[in-house]
Design a protein that fits this description.
Blueprint (H helix, E strand, L loop, with lengths): L8 E5 L4 H12 L3 E6 L2 H15 L4 E5 L5 H14 L5 E4 L17 H23 L3 E6 L11 H4 L11 H23 L4 E7 L13 H10 L6 H4 L1 H8 L10 E3 L2 E2 L9 H15 L10
Parallel strand pairs: 1-2, 1-4, 2-3, 4-5, 5-6, 6-7
Antiparallel strand pairs: 7-8
Helix pairs in contact: 1-2, 3-4, 4-6, 6-10
Length: about 290
């Protein structure tokens, strides 16, 4: 089946848990080759075994990486380029809301490193594989919280990231706005290349961010859980963007669930998109990442 023109090679970050795991399972159920990227070896192995069992597809594999570390992303990218001749689908799904201020191995705010810089670094490093496919899709998992996001360029240029006046929600919202800005900036550069990129707010899944929230935030999450949707249902949205024939060639759009949506006014500011693009490339270059668009 891997020789069939309809067979796809897929990579899903955050594939051991929640929406990422359900996305990976749905792609596997369609018969595609799926690699899930996650940090914890035991959780990743369990996810691979479960997805193989429930999808009936043995062509599911784990790829360990700490996506908050640029060096780890570079190592992952090199391994993928050795193993694959092409990549048809890249789903950037890994992310978290951190209750307390934490620094990544590179000195960035950890929300920024994991939720945004990982998208940039991994996508650019895997771009040659995506370009090798006849028609490839990049799906960036954003959030409706990007609507309250603001890019604090002054703080982001400070390494290590400052701790003063840290807000977990504001830090997360900033990274999600960056996801949308990055998507639009990348889409312009990919126009006519055969590779498309779109982003989405998939919906609120039960259990999301529960591992990193504490105190009042944990209580709020607990109260909201009954009103959230099962991760398998929410995952229909990224799978739709990855596989739907009707979205062939669709590039540079923001979706809410299965439908096209309208992202924030700030996210549609081309000057802000380009400013964010420049900063992001400067930051990923700290680990000597050689993205094709540099």
């Amino acid at each position: 089946m891997s020789g069939s023109p309809s067979h796809k090679f897929c990579l899903v970050t955050g594939g051991s848990f929640g929406i990422g795991r359900e996305t990976a399972q749905a792609l596997a159920q369609h018969g595609h080759t799926v690699y899930i990227v996650a940090r914890d070896a035991r959780r990743t192995a369990d996810a691979v075994e479960s997805i193989r069992k429930h999808s009936g597809n043995a062509d599911v594999h784990g790829a360990l990486a700490d996506l908050s570390s640029l060096a780890s992303i570079l190592d992952l990218s090199r391994r993928m380029r050795r193993q694959l001749r092409k990549l048809d689908i890249l789903v950037n799904s890994a992310g978290s809301l951190f209750a307390e201020h934490q620094l990544s191995a590179d000195g960035f705010d950890k929300s920024w490193a994991l939720n945004h810089l990982a998208y940039v670094a991994l996508t650019l490093e895997l771009l040659p594989l995506l370009q090798a496919a006849s028609s490839a899709r990049i799906v960036n998992m954003a959030s409706d919280l990007h609507l309250r996001g603001r890019i604090d360029f002054d703080a982001l240029r400070q390494v290590p990231a400052p701790r003063a006046a840290f807000s977990a929600v504001d830090s997360y919202a900033q990274s999600k706005l960056a996801n949308v800005l990055f998507t639009y900036a990348l889409a312009r550069r990919l126009q006519g290349s055969g590779v498309t990129v779109n982003c989405l707010h998939p919906g609120d899944a039960a259990g999301r961010s529960r591992r990193t929230t504490r105190g009042m935030m944990k209580l709020v999450n607990r109260v909201l859980q009954p009103f959230r949707q099962p991760a398998a249902l929410v995952a229909q949205a990224p799978v739709h963007l990855a596989l739907s024939p009707e979205l062939e060639g669709v590039n540079g759009m923001y979706f809410v669930g299965l439908q096209p949506g309208v992202s924030s006014l700030a996210s549609r500011d081309v000057e802000l998109q380009e400013r964010l693009w420049t900063l992001s490339l400067e930051q990923v270059a700290r680990a000597s990442l050689a993205g094709s668009l540099l």
